[in-house]
Amino acid sequence: MGTLFAYELLLLFKPERNPSSSSFFFHSFKFLLIATFVLDPYLSLEVAQASPCRTACGGIPINYPFGIDDGCGSPYYRHALACSDSGILELRTPSGRYQVRSISYSDPHIIVTDPFMWNCEDGSHFRATRPFSLDTSVHFTLSSQNDYLFFNCSEQDVIIEPKPIFCERFPERCDSTCDSASYLCRHLPGCATALGGSSCCAYFPKATESLRMMLKYCASYTSIYWRNYVANSPDNQVPEYGIRVDFDIPVTTHCLQCQDMTKGGGTCGFDTRSLNFLCFCGGGNSTTYCGDHDNSVQGSRTGVIAGTVTAVSAAGALGIGAGVWYWKKIRAKAPVTCGVQTNENRLF
Fold first, then answer.
1. Wall-associated receptor kinase galacturonan-binding domain location, by residue (predicted)?
2. Residue 69 domain flag
3. Which range (26-40, 212-226, 262-276) has the least confidence?
4. In the predicted model, is pLDDT for residue 285 greater than 80?
5. SS3 breakdown of the chain: % helix, strand, coil, rounded to 5?
6. Do 314 and 167 sit in the same domain of this protein?
């Protein structure tokens, strides 16, 4: 394909017998313009589609539905995760970027840390903080296994009192109360006495706005999640600092077929322009699964990078070679102006 383009360009710019300088510039401009239009779709396709799907960042596995390369994973989580040059995985949210500590795919959730939240080293010194928030357009939710502790809140603006026992069975009836008798306030993980004489209460904000309101009247806050140290056993949990973010795994027939080892064992992804499903395979890509050669995609993603890049490179090399050959042929017959600008050699 690239050779055919270059041959057509050579025919378009067959040299004239007595070319002038103005003719040379005119034809050169036409040559570059047409070459750009001919080659640009192939070059832009490779820029948008040529990145392979990395499977880990800083030791944390990156599996479906996530991807740290554009076009990998599910489009629902496009740009949700980012891997820095130093190998640090981060979660992107409207309130900032947060380091990811771990990802679980069997019990779908992410654990992130917020450096602005209170920690044991702060003690009774509370730093300025900001509310953590999630993008509502992404399939993320704050886990109910999170507990939020607020420190030195204004008793005039926040309802601070011990929650009755029935709140454990009917928590919706106690939403407006910040629990001063919270177990975690009395047993801070790793530093039970770090607060000194500062007050503490537990409250689960239902929305980002309620969290902002709490921080307006409280000195600081922190998040503690309950980690299962025995798999799938809610009765065996330990509290740890961090934010647990739950996510959904979109299950589609296309992705299941793509991942099926008996059908080639591909990687689920999507076209970065149309967002349509793509199955990335070792020897070429498909809109269904790796063994389905009738629905293979030409010129997309990693499977055909070598072929398309070679074709584009060949076309570019031949095109540039043709331009240089034509320029030298014209230059040999062009009049010598010795730097004098005339209507014959004027650029514009």
1. 53-114
2. no
3. 26-40
4. no
5. 30, 20, 45
6. no
Give the residue among 173, 192, 174, 175 at the shortest CA–CA distance from 183. 192
What's the domain count of the chain?
2
238 membership: H or E segment, kind and range: strand 237-241
H/E stretch holding 26 reads helix 21-49
Cα dist from 73 to 61, 178, 277, 319, whole Å = 13, 40, 10, 37
Element at 40 (helix H, strand E) = helix 21-49
Torsion over CA: 103, 105, 110, 111 (sign): negative
Range(s) of the domain holding residue 162: 88-247
Q: In this structure, are residues 301 and 28 in contact, taking their beta carbons and an 8 Å threshold? A: no
Do 224 and 120 form a contact (C-beta atoms < 8 A)?
no
φ/ψ of 241, rounded to 5, equals -75, 140
β partners of residue 240: 225
The whole-angstrom separation of Cα 109 and Cα 143 is: 8
Is the torsion defined by CA of 145, 206, 183, 244 positive or negative? positive
CB 268 within 8 A of CB 255: yes
Comparing 117-131, 149-163, 290-304, the range with the smallest average pLDDT is 290-304
| Dist CA 277 CA 49 (whole Å) | 13
Are residues 41 and 92 located together in one domain of the fold? no
Amino acid letter, residue 117: M
User: Quick one: 34 and 94 in the same domain?
Assistant: no
pTM of the prediction?
Answer: 0.68
CA angle 51, 77, 286 (to 5 degrees): 50
Q: pLDDT tens, 229-250?
A: 766 666 678 999 999 999 999 9
Q: Are the CB atoms for 203 and 180 separated by under 8 Å?
A: no
Which of the listed residues 213, 247, 281 is the one where a domain comes to its end? 247
